Amino acid sequence: MSATRARSVQNEITISNPATGERVGSVAVATAADVKAAALRARRAQPAWERLGVRRRRRVLERFHDLLFERQDEIFDTIQRESGKTRREALGELLIVAGTARYYLAHGEEHLAEESHPGASPLITGARVGHRPYGLVGFITPWNYPFILSIGDALPALLAGNAVLVKPSELTPLSAELGRDLLATSGLDADLVQLVHGPGATVGAELVDHVDYLGFTGSTATGRKVAVAAAERLIPCSLELGGKNPMIVLAGAPLEEAVTGLVSGGFYNTGQTCIAVARVYVESRIFDRFAALARRRIEKLKVGWSLDWDMDVGSLVSREHAAKVMRHVEDAVGKGATVLTGGQRRSDLGEAFVAPTLLTDVDESMELCREETFGPVVALYPVRDADEAVARANDSTYGLNASVWTGSARTSRALARRIEAGSVGINSTLLIYSTFDVPMGGVKESGIGRRHGRQGILRFTQAQSIVDSIATGGGYEGVLANITSEARARSLAAAFKLMRRIPGLR
Ligand code: NDP
User: Is 413 helix (H, G, I), strand (E, B) or coil?
Assistant: First the structure.
């Protein structure tokens, strides 16, 4: 779902603020030779970085974490100007990048530590598993969270001892540029973070040819293409893809709070969030009350763009993307959907604004029923009971995130376990992204692999097993070689049979 806004003139991409049309910067488009040279520079710098060891690598991350807060205004301005989002949402990006740094500063070393394991046989053998960096990790990232997805995701890869090569979205490369400068100011060898800019189909595709691991975040359609390219090279990849995330509200739920969940889950970042709420299944007997409450709250949202803290919902990332969102809305309305609120562009505010929209009477004939709209549009569906809600929530090719509101922790947890999604929030919608100790990612067509937690750093490493044996008498291999009679074979077999019954030897 590439939303064209950046204008590419010869070798340069001009970045403009989608809310105001103001030009905010430019970056040079990389050629194939530039991508290759960037990969080479990163590779040359990586071995010394790996040799430093995790403790000394941590120091860079510590300084980076604190620098984020010292330079926060500049970070907010940069994110806001290239994406059209509100200041609060720019703060949200900073908090997640800082939270990622904080989490891996506290736990990265233990996740990366060499582990001791039982050997093949007690007393004479042992085993250890180390986690070696891949070398050069590539990232291809979208425009919706330009600071988190380029720089935030690179932090665990760097801490694990890798160099990184990042291709941000053409629409929002400036936040990644600033992030790279902040890392260099924090003491990181600047060659370890290489950025290459330009269209995904050329520069992104070229990047895949030069890296040892690929972290892709973006649409399912593009994810499929890069997965094929990664498979051709036999390099591993993680794919963090789209979603059409369900929310379930049952009769016992606290309705005001559930509406708060809907408003933040559906309209935060103008709905341009992979884990955003898009479909809400509401038990029939509370449907009208819930719909009325939701409509009233959505109508109070202040839409617009400013560098102050006064806006609730900003612009979409581009005029083209706003048009795509409106096509979904108009298609639905043309086929019989009811607009509870919104449903139109806010051209009075700028070219890329769409009013926060709540729909009902949405059916299968409408594109937005199943496809990712990726804008400020939420559809409400009445359901008979919890079983119908779960069945409909699961009736999707996506499986990224879900939200459950029932009024009972026990019922909610039981319901959550039945939902086909990589994460489920109880009494919350976007909470998973700030819960750094647990893995986050999608099932079905929402992706492969996880960010955050132990998996979120070990994915940038390869396990290396080192097994050892005593040398005396030929060690472990000598055991079998020394079986030269029926009696010895029987003793060995008896010892092995016993092993299953002795704790510590199993
Ligand atoms: P796209 O898939 O269009 O683009 C993502 C990135 O891939 C961009 O940098 C793009 O470059 C690049 N790209 C495009 N074509 C190719 C190609 N053939 N080879 C290599 N790279 C390529 O996604 P959007 O930018 O439109 O982002 C929105 C999508 O991202 C949504 O579907 C959303 O759900 C998903 N997303 C998922 C998240 C998750 O964690 N699961 C988090 C955030 C977003 P360019 O566009 O510059 O040409």
Answer: helix
- Just list the catalytic residues: 240, 274
- Spelled out in words, what is the top-level CATH class assigned to the domain 245-441? alpha beta
Could you give the 3-state DSSP secondary structure of residue 81? helix
Pocket test for ligand 1, best of 13, 100, 140, 444 (most atoms within 8 A of CB): 140
Atom in ligand 1 nearest the alpha carbon of residue 240: 41
Using alpha carbons, list the distances in angstroms from residue 396 to 33, 266, 278, 364, 372: 42, 18, 12, 12, 11
Residue 225 alpha carbon, nearest atom of ligand 1: 18
- Interatomic CA distance for residues 24 and 92, integer angstroms: 21
Q: Report the residue among 169, 171, 324 best suited for mutation to probe ligand 1: largest number of ligand atoms under 8 A from its CB.
A: 169
Q: Is 144 in the pocket of ligand 1 (CB under 6 A)?
A: yes
Q: Taking the model in full, what pTM does it have?
A: 0.96
Provide the residue-wise pLDDT of the chain in tens; the chain has 506 residues: 445 555 555 699 999 999 999 999 999 999 999 999 999 999 999 999 999 999 999 999 999 999 999 999 999 999 999 999 999 999 999 999 999 999 999 999 999 999 999 999 888 999 999 999 999 999 999 999 999 999 999 999 999 999 999 999 999 999 999 999 999 999 999 999 999 999 999 999 999 999 999 999 999 999 999 999 999 999 999 999 999 999 999 999 999 999 999 999 999 999 999 999 999 999 999 999 999 999 999 999 999 999 999 999 999 999 999 999 999 999 999 999 999 999 999 999 999 999 999 999 999 999 999 999 999 999 999 999 999 999 999 999 999 999 999 999 999 999 999 999 999 999 999 999 999 999 999 999 999 999 999 999 999 999 999 999 999 999 999 989 999 999 999 999 998 899 889 887 77
Ligand 1, pocket-test mutation among 143, 167, 222, 450, most atoms within 8 A of CB: 222
C-alpha 199 to ligand 1 mean position (Å): 11
What does the domain layout of the chain look like in residue ranges? Answer: 6-239+453-462, 245-441, 475-506
Domain 6-239+453-462 CATH (choose: 3.30.1330.60, 3.40.50.720, 3.40.50.300, 3.40.605.10): 3.40.605.10
Q: How far apart are CA 153 and CA 456, in angstroms?
A: 9
Query: Is the CB–ligand 1 distance for residue 382 below 6 Å?
Result: no
Write out the DSSP string of 126-174: EEEEEEEE-SEEEEE--SSSTTIIIIIHHHHHHHTT-EEEEE--TT--H
Residue 326 CA to ligand 1 center (angstroms) comes to 20
Please indicate whether residue 242, judged by its CB atom, sits closer than 6 Å to ligand 1: yes
